[in-house]
Fold these 4 entries.
Entry 1:
Amino acid sequence: MFQFTKREKLCNRTEIQNLFTKGQSFLVYPFSVRYTIKDNTISPKVKVLLLSPKRYQKLAVSRNRVKRLIRETYRLSKDSIIKFAKQEACDINISISLVSKDIPTYYLVDESMKKILNRIIINTKDDIEKNCQNN
């Protein structure tokens, strides 16, 4: 339950391209978030892509540290979004990218991750309700 397995990582090239071309985005400082939702799936799942661009973090040590922080906070707070995906029977692909030159603290990353996941859930609920009203 508190693991971050290979099945939860977004690795498929077409899914990543779809995420960056058709996905919705928002900013929760120090992270930029993109996500896509696919409704009515048989086995709902949540996949995550973690990014720490060289543009903001020049040293590989810094990029790896940030990715470890993001991975750890996601691993500990992913329950809510996984339950939501199962409840609504939808696939959710998420990209979380650092947009700060400073290395954030664990507490900042943790609070930001909770805000990110809650915002995705709220936006998805709104989208699903709009689709139900239109049909």
Entry 2:
Amino acid sequence: MKLIIAIIQPGKLEAVKEALTRVEVYRLTVMDCQGFGRQKGQTGVYRGHEFSVNLLRKVQLQIAVNEPFVQPTIDAILEGGRSPGGEIGDGKIFVLPMDDCIRIRTGERGSEAI
């Protein structure tokens, strides 16, 4: 079992969800988040004064999958989340080992709980 965490552009969320549906990944958690990397925020002008926004809005996806779904999930996120030609700020995908998963409703554990 793996936990896949993806940080993507908010505008790419629907495309990623559609790509995940095509590879039969239907369960995910979506959270709004902020951060910056190589983009280093943005500079704007308000009433003639320049200001910088250090944190940019992103969306974080958390997806728990069994081993056979790891690569198809990664490929779907890449397909839906990448800008044409790829751009700085498209996001990141992290793949973490997951020791256990428990379904609260039934008490099932492990792969069956996903």
Entry 3:
Amino acid sequence: MIYKIFRHKEVEQDLFDIINLLLEYAGFDVTEKKISEIEASIKNLAHTPHIGTIRDDILPNLRAIPTARKGVITFSVDDDKKEVFIISITYAGADWIAKTPHRLK
């Protein structure tokens, strides 16, 4: 079964921040490639929602997966509703552990 993907309202800002970082240091082509890789990782969660490391030590039902070599996507899965909720996307060593719990308060 295919799960629906939902995003926390601040995920778009996460992506915008990643774009700005990459444009400054790597240029347009690399930025476009990395954002495409991140979006592909998110899209794949619709088919494989139970991948990643379970991080119940941070939040119940939290999962984290690497993306685009230096990124991390955090998300939760609701099997009853068949939904994946993207909580945060970080890149280049940003502190996703500190960012993530604050998004669910």
Entry 4:
Amino acid sequence: MVGNFKKGEWFLALFNLLYILGFGGYYISIKNFEFLWYVAVLVFFFLLVVLTLKKSKFDYTILWGLSLWGFLHMAGGGVPVGDGVLYGYQLLSLVDNGGDFFILKFDQLVHAFGFGVATLFIYHLLKPYLNEKTNWGAVYAILIAAGSGLGALNEIVEFVAVVSFPETGVGGYANTALDLVFNIIGATLAVIFIHVRRLKTARGN
């Protein structure tokens, strides 16, 4: 099956392997066990996509989106910025009530991007079962709920890290709540993208 990969798919696989191995080695060297846990989760999903690619036929938008999401996640926890890491970097001071309640951070941007991609992922899996009689309003609502649900699952993964390792950079309640907000923002933007692309395709036909 792997031998049937297209040239672009091989390039994507190499890109993923390089940054997973690179960041994995880096986190081992600094004994960051929290992000070694995330590396293990990332490897699991990488293998899941690779081993099912022939059947799932994900397009390059989704594959590149997943790859960049993984890279940004690994960089976010390890690239030093000031007194912290990239995940805590404050991009814009839109809201600042002190502590974790700050908008906009790199972490929040990655959440929106990542779970937007996750929503596209779910749509791709559902697409073969949709047709001209589909209630698209209901589908869009389901997609937003599903993308946000995966975001909630991610928070559970982070919670496992919190209870498993003595020190993590997960943050407190406000951080978790804002992560969930940006997850649903990303899912909603993905649905808007799906709607616009679907309308363009329909006009093209």
